[in-house]
Design a protein that fits this description.
Layout (H helix, E strand, L loop, with lengths): L6 H10 E2 L1 H12 L10 H11 L4 H15 L4 E2 L8 H16 L4 H20 L1
Antiparallel strand pairs: 1-2
Helix pairs in contact: 2-5, 3-4, 3-5, 3-6, 4-5, 4-6
Length: 126
């Protein structure tokens, strides 16, 4: 039957999609019970982590997070937060804080995203 209300399933799915800002808020909630020391250079640490294991789900998600912070766009699912281990969650918080504080230039963020994407492309080619 056409014209029916999409129902609770569609409404639930819509609630699971998060904007980059909403995703950041959820990450902060998830990590509040964990303590990890912040990295001195979060961009370099994130790129290094991605380059070490580009095929990992965490690396792909971390690349999307870098891009979302850099370009202020993207969508995430609430469940994706569960794919991040404690160390990576702490890294994401440090990245969010560094971005908000303007500790790195826009060009540095763009280079980090480009390096992360290049690592993913290299992993896909294998």
């Amino acid at each position: 039957m056409s014209g029916q209300d999409p129902g609770p399933k569609s409404a639930a799915a819509a609630k699971e999609l998060l904007s980059p800002v909403q995703f950041q808020q959820e990450v902060r909630r998830a990590i509040r019970f964990r303590s990890q020391p912040p990295s001195a250079d979060p961009l370099a640490a994130a790129v290094k982590k991605i380059e070490q294991n580009p095929a990992f789900t965490q690396s792909r998600l971390l690349t999307r997070i870098l891009a979302a912070l850099t370009y202020q766009q993207g969508e995430f699912r609430r469940a994706e937060i569960a794919a991040l281990d404690g160390e990576t969650l702490a890294m994401v918080i440090t990245l969010m804080d560094a971005h908000a504080a303007g500790k790195s230039t826009r060009d540095e963020w763009i280079r980090a995203v480009d390096a992360a994407n290049a690592a993913l492309v290299g992993a896909d080619a294998i």
